[in-house]
Amino acid sequence: MATVAWLQLRQMLAGKKVWMLTIFLLLPAGLSALIAAAGEWRGGEEEELLKAIYLFMVYPQAVCLLLALLYGTSLLNAELEEKTITYLFTRPVPRWKVFLGKYAALVPWLAAPSLASLTGSWLLLGRPGGAALLGGMALAVLGSVAVYGAIFGLVGVVFRTRTLVIGVLYAVIFEFFLSFLPAVVSALSVTHYLRSVVLKVTDLEVPEEVLVIVGNASLLESAGVLGAIALAAVGLASFVCTRREYVVAEQL
Amino acid sequence: MPNLIEARSLTKLYGVVIGVNDVTLDLPPGVRGLLGPNGAGKSTFLKLITGQLRPTEGEVRVFGEVPWNNPGLFRRIGFCPEQDAFYDFLTGLEFVTALARMGGLPAGEARRRAEETLRRVGAADYMNRKIGGYSKGMRQRTKVAQALVHDPALFILDEPLTGTDPIGRHDLIELVKRLGAEGKSILISSHVLHEVQAMTEEFLLIYGGRVLASGNVHEIRGLMNEYPHRITLRCENGRALAHVLLRDLPVSGVELDEAAGTVAVHTRDPQGFYAGLPDVALRAGARIREVLSQDDNLDAVFRYLVTRD
Question: Nearest to residue B121, comparing CAs of B97, B100, B98, B140?
């Protein structure tokens, strides 16, 4: 499995998407610099909340999700397109381990630069919320890449074509539309629990009526739900991967 | 001696397209060519025995085990696929070492074996260069090395000589012969008879997803000789040539097209025909400019074998 992870890391490092990853992570840092330079910031709780919302919406909810979408959906499909899947599936390694190895490489690959960019933005914005906010955001970033990586990995395994379209549809419906609806509906989204993590780790003051929408799950509940979603998605993807035939078309 | 591969009513369908059709066979260990024209079902058969595909009906066993979802079996199988696909960003050594690691070898041993195998296939000189910069021949050798690195008991090559240069072909043929002499079982798929004939005399003929025949090269050649070959001669004085051909050579029919300047000949003994052609042409005073043997390919021969049955 470690060899599969190593291969996957080398593949991602050599891939064309590495430029997209760089741009995706430099852009928000640049935007943060612009915000820091342009605004007249005086400090205070409201300002901290605003900056926290900005950091959350940019990193765990947008950048991490998009990167997970780009890389997750192509975990196996890239091997199929490059026709290298034959090498992986004719070795004494169970297919579920192949998928797991790839997923294990994906999480640190996305998390490390995302955390670096997040830290850069946080510093540029004048360290809002102190270390607690950075810690909360970092946890949300880790949760985001782990859970979205698993979900989009599953999408890539289940659907052979239009995986990006399906991934975008999922993101728009669940992670943007539903996540802003009140009551239980919001709890159907991953974002709900990521927001809860940030709120529970930090001491941000959020009005009670807003908490219903934003997310008010306990840290344990959020971690449990996020972990369960990631596990279920990885497990299901591994199962499908084991049961499905992967045919390089011209080789029939 | 237990069979290497056993198939019982093995069938693979891709929707309504037949990949392999009701194949029942017992293949003993040894070196064997899997021969058939493009689209005959060779690659599907190989994918079934390497567990990449699941049979739609029937069963296949390799070393007595079902290959589908049986990764443990791949310790004993080395598969060299047809497609020219690689991790171009790796060096040849990194590529073969990684696949050796996946084959269950510890890191140090995997690297040592990878170097040894790359040397064996003649790829040592460039094994530290990125595969992306390799020529077709270099890539082919590296692909063979990855299939051999874990020392499998069964070595499967899918169209291994496609695109190789003469030296590469020679080396690969010699390698297969050596491995065969060492007691390895080898299955080589190809659509070119004389290529595989250089490596083995034992064949399995496959066409339309069916195994038509198996046996040694002499039996196969015999089958092929039953097929009426059509040979077209582009020549001057075709009428005189046609007359002498019918009289003096093993020819079953002649079609004369004076406008096109061609004589099409039907014969069941192409070797006898070719041997006698120069003398006959001299006698007829016909200057032959071109000899075309359109049916001298497996597809035509196999079609004939199917309709003959």
Answer: B140
Residue from the list B19, B72, B86 with its beta carbon closest to the beta carbon of A252: B19
Class of CATH domain B228-308? alpha beta
Length of chain B: 309
Task: Determine the distance in angstroms separating the CA of A240 from the nearest CA of chain B, rounded to an integer.
Answer: 12
Domain range annotation of chain B = 5-224, 228-308
Cβ distance B87 to A95 less than 8 Å, yes or no, reads no
**Half-sphere exposure (Cβ direction) of B55: Cα atoms closer than 13 Å:** 21
Helix (H, G, I), strand (E, B) or coil at B272: helix
Q: How many whole angstroms separate alpha carbon B177 and alpha carbon B182?
A: 9
Question: What is the distance in angstroms between the Cα of A9 and the nearest Cα belonging to chain B?
Answer: 11
C-alpha B92/C-alpha B89 separation (Å) is 10
pTM score, whole prediction: 0.81
**Three-class SS state of B39:** coil
* Nearest chain A alpha carbon to B12: A252
The SS3 assignment for B93 reads helix
How many residues make up chain A in this entry? 252
> What is the tens place of the pLDDT at every residue in B253-287?
899 998 888 999 988 777 788 888 888 888 888 88
In the predicted model, is pLDDT for residue A60 greater than 50?
yes
- Taking the mean position of all CA atoms in its chain, how far away is CA B234? 31
| pLDDT range class, residue A183, cuts 50, 70, 90 | low
- Distance separating alpha carbons of residues B76 and B153, to the nearest angstrom: 5
Confidence bin at B227 (pLDDT 50/70/90)? low
Contact A3 B86 (CB under 8 A): no
Distance CA B140, CA A191 (A): 49
Residue A100: phi and psi, rounded to 5, are -60, -40
* Of residues B162, B200, B184, B185, the one with CA closest to residue B83: B162
**Whether B101 contacts chain A with CB within 8 A:** yes
pLDDT for B48-73, tens place per residue?
A: 999 999 999 999 999 999 999 899 99
Q: 3-state class of B99 per DSSP?
A: helix
Q: List pLDDT tens digits, range A152-167.
A: 999 999 987 888 899 8
CATH architecture of B5-224: 3-Layer(aba) Sandwich (3.40)
Beta bridge partners, B130, equal B91
Which residue type does A64 have? C
Contact assessment for residue B141 and residue B121, using Cβ atoms and an 8 Å cutoff: yes
Q: How far is residue A237 CA from its own chain's centroid?
A: 17
Domain count, chain A: 1
**Among candidates B44, B69, B102 on the partner chain, residue whose Cβ is nearest the Cβ of A93:** B102
Give the domain range for residue A212.
Answer: 2-251
| Residue reference for tokens 């709120």 | A199
pLDDT given at position B109: 93
Which residues, 6+ apart, have CB-to-CB distance to A187 below 8 Å?
A193, A215, A217
Distance CA(A91)–CA(B194), nearest Å, equals 31
| ipTM, two decimals | 0.82
* Chain B residues 180-219 within an 8 A CB cutoff of chain A: none
Return the bridge partners of B188, or none: B33, B157
